[in-house]
Amino acid sequence: MKLVVAVVQDKDAGRLIEELVDRGYRATKLASTGGFLKEGNTTLLVGAEDAQVDEVVAIIKRVCRPREQVVTPLGPIGGAVDTYVPYPVEVIVGGATIFVLNVERFEHV
Ligand code: 2BA
Per its UniProt record, what InterPro entries does this chain match (predicted)? Predict the structure, then answer.
């Protein structure tokens, strides 16, 4: 068995859960925060048999799309703020960041 951990954008999370559950997968949705943008995102945990992992990943790839986001970096902490000119930087967020982990033991009681 595997555990698929997927960090996705909030905008894609609802539809992704629906698609997974419609196909008989079980999923848990966690509210998370990206370390770089410090904005909310969603982490999904999906327990699946080894043979199902490719389909789970394919569903995630189909539903989650990359989006461009503009970030304005904060000024340097304790630095010379009067000479610091912040300018927006574009980053591409997602589709999804996916980890597939081996599950040593699974019990559902
Ligand atoms: P954030 O950490 O908020 O990152 C959002 C986006 O900012 C990233 O999109 C990437 O385009 C950019 N970014 C992140 N760190 C950067 C850096 N040091 N320099 C320049 N740009 C940077 P994604 O790569 O699609 O990541 C989306 C979210 O997935 C991340 O949100 C984070 O929550 C998670 N994530 C990505 N890689 C991860 C990893 N190796 N381990 C754990 N979580 C990860």
Answer: CdAMP_rec (IPR010375), N-reg_PII-like_a/b (IPR011322), N-reg_PII/ATP_PRibTrfase_C (IPR015867)
Cβ < 6 Å from ligand 1: which residues?
Answer: 7, 34-37, 41, 91-94, 97
Q: Tell me the CA–centroid distance for residue 96 and ligand 1, in Å.
A: 10
| Residues contacting residue 65 through CB under 8 Å, at least 6 positions apart | 12, 94, 95
CATH of the domain at 98: 3.30.70.120
Count of structural domains, the chain: 1
Decide: 98 and 4 in contact? Cβ < 8 Å.
Answer: yes
Reported as a single tens digit per residue, the pLDDT across 18-67 is: 999 999 999 999 999 999 999 999 999 999 999 999 999 999 999 999 99
Q: Is residue 49 part of a domain?
A: yes
Q: What is the pLDDT of residues 68-101, one digit of tens each?
A: 998 876 656 666 666 666 788 899 998 999 999 9
